[in-house]
Design a protein that fits this description.
- The structure is a single chain.
- The protein has 130 residues and is mostly beta strands.
- It has one domain.
- The protein is 12% helix and 55% strand.
- The strands form 3 sheets. The chain has a 6-stranded antiparallel beta barrel. It has a two-stranded antiparallel sheet with strand order 2-3.
- It is globular.
Length: 130
Amino acid sequence: MGVLWDSHYDGIRQLIDINPVKITWERYPDKDNDRDVPITDFSAVPEQKRAWVRISHQRGGVQDASAQATGFTTSFSMYLLALYDVDVRDGEIITAETGTVQKWKVGVVNELFVDGECYAKQAPLERADG
């Protein structure tokens, strides 16, 4: 990798190190459907995955804070920030150990690139545990 990639990677790593959150998730392996097309094998034992990431707030659109009948609301949402080698995918349910255990559904995973090389990933999160 290059100096610019190293700089971006180190910046993301430092952000994660400020407030690291351990996440875990399961993924079923793929199998061939006898037509050279991989499909998910739900009869197999799922693989247990884990990683250290940052879960943080992001502004969801134009910042808006207003008083309503149910209290004070804002337009903030949550997102996940991970290093390039964290293999989390769109739609997966992750469990985050943040003092209390929380479940999140991962939105579209966006890879961040510099000089044509991925150095980090980010994705919006939606509560999955009610």
